[in-house]
Design a protein that fits this description.
This protein is an alpha/beta fold. It folds into three domains: about 120 residues, Rossmann fold; about 230 residues, pyruvate-formate lyase- activating enzyme, CATH 3.80.30.20; about 60 residues, Beta Barrel (OB fold (Dihydrolipoamide Acetyltransferase, E2P)). The protein has 13 helices and 18 strands. The strands form four sheets. A six-stranded parallel β-sheet has the order 2-1-3-4-5-6, with helices on both faces. Strands 16-15-14-17-18 form a five-stranded antiparallel β-sheet. A hairpin with a 4-residue loop joins strand 15 and strand 16. The longest helix has 24 residues. The radius of gyration is 22 Å and the shape is globular. The two termini are about 40 Å apart.
Length: about 425
């Protein structure tokens, strides 16, 4: 029985994809290796969102091939879809499998004749609906990700995702509910729902289904401990989801809505179909309904033509908003997107300075958010068994990571914690009782 090891780059959708790959390999009589050194098969699930990510993937693949010359090395994911030849040319790579074929990865590996550098790709629009693979093996993850939806049809001018994941398509509601029921039966306390363009879930199904209606069905699953949404685009955000979260304590008060820019001029160039004021209004609505909610966003700095005033507009919006954290991404031009050939490129030094400024603002806002909960009791989930210092880690319902000092707790337990200390780089908490 061959032993495998999976490397995962990128977003939560990729993490969900890796869980599905893990499941398919287990079902095909492969065994997961306890460590990299025991593996005979390596699967690299790649990302291609930036040039830097591409470089990290190549470096990892080369290292695997160099250190494991007798192992079988398979690369899949978004980089494998975008530029399979670049990966197949790396000495030691056996297979490069595009995104549309990776659900058949176990079958392909078993049928393959081990020819070095073989590429397997199929059309990304070959199926209207997204077929969700069941997951009974999570690779030790405390919080399983269920991918409801794949692909995107938005065509933002900077984004490579539609080219590497295809058009938007959704899993059947009954399949999703069954998966939630199975994970609850296996005693997972928190389930995270994810998708490439989550707000478009169900719109193109034969029987169209709104995301909020699916959420109501999921929340009715007996024994569900906590439900959390992953990133959801503001242009497809249904405000009734906020009201549902406010009415149901199982629904985590945590929303991540990508802004990308606080400048209307840049939003138009990005082909984002909203204005900064509308985004701010949405954040304020969520905050009014759920005052303790964590509110995160993505910001893309250095988009072609971004002036000092455009960047200032972004900073001002972030500062006056109820956002609690930012994910800041320096612009990286991707071939096959409109932004690839746009004029007025921003210099790398300016991009670095702007990213640094926004990250500092993010740290300040997150510190202020965490300080609001000093001395307060908050529901949380235990995440880690033990760290180097003999501590456990918890995640509160509103996305505060905290250390539980001098105590080792089993993962996957719902508890009540008291926030004891808030520092710029960490938070500490005390377990008060089970949730």
């Amino acid at each position: 029985m061959s032993k495998f090891f999976i490397y995962t780059f990128g977003c939560r959708c990729n993490q969900a994809d890796s869980a599905a790959i893990r499941e398919s390999l287990h079902r095909s009589s492969f065994e997961e290796a306890g460590s990299r050194g025991d593996a005979e098969l390596f699967v690299v699930n790649s990302c291609t969102i930036t040039h830097r990510t591409d470089q990290q993937v190549r470096q990892t693949v080369r290292k695997i091939c160099r250190e494991n010359p007798d192992a079988q090395v398979v690369v899949t994911g978004c980089y494998a879809e975008r530029d399979p030849e670049a990966l197949a040319s790396i000495r030691g790579v056996n297979l490069v499998v595009g995104n549309a074929a990776k659900d058949r990865l176990a079958e392909i590996i078993q049928d393959d004749d081990a020819t070095r550098g073989r590429i397997i790709r199929t059309p990304l629009d070959s199926a209207r609906d997204y077929l969700m693979a069941p997951m009974s093996h999570t690779g030790g993850k405390t919080r399983p990700f269920i991918k409801l939806q794949d692909g995107c049809s938005a065509q933002c001018s900077y984004c490579i995702v539609p080219a590497v994941r295809g058009p938007g398509r959704s899993a059947a509601p009954d399949d999703i509910v069954r998966e939630v029921q199975m994970l609850v039966q296996r005693d997972f306390k928190e389930i995270v729902l994810t998708g490439v363009h989550l707000g478009t879930y169900g719109l193109k199904l034969e029987a169209p289904t709104r995301l909020v209606d699916l959420l109501r069905r999921i929340l009715d699953v007996p024994g569900l401990g906590r439900l959390r949404l992953s990133s959801i685009e503001p242009m497809r955000f249904d405000r009734s989801i906020v009201k549902l979260a406010a009415q149901n304590p199982v629904f985590s008060p945590h929303f991540h809505l990508p802004l990308q820019s606080g400048s209307d001029r840049i939003l138009r160039r990005m082909r984002r179909p909203y204005r900064a004021a509308r985004f701010l209004n949405l954040l304020e609505f969520i905050h009014s309904q759920l005052p303790t909610a964590a509110l995160g966003t993505d910001i893309l700095v250095g988009f072609p033509g971004e002036s000092d005033q455009d960047f200032k507009d972004t900073c001002e919006l972030v500062c006056k908003s109820p956002l609690t954290y930012l994910h800041v991404f320096p612009f990286s031009a991707r071939q096959h997107t409109d932004a690839w050939s746009m004029p007025d490129a921003v210099s790398p030094d300016v991009i670095r300075q702007r990213a640094s400024t926004l990250r500092r603002i993010s740290q300040e806002k997150n510190l202020a958010f965490r300080r609001r909960f000093l001395g307060r009791l908050v529901p949380a989930l235990t995440l880690a068994k033990e760290e180097e210092m003999g501590e456990s880690v918890i995640l509160t319902e509103n996305y505060i990571h905290a250390r539980v000092e001098n105590k080792v707790l089993p993962p996957n337990q719902l508890v009540q914690v008291r926030i004891d200390s808030v520092q710029p780089s960490f938070t500490t908490a005390t377990i008060v009782s089970p949730a």
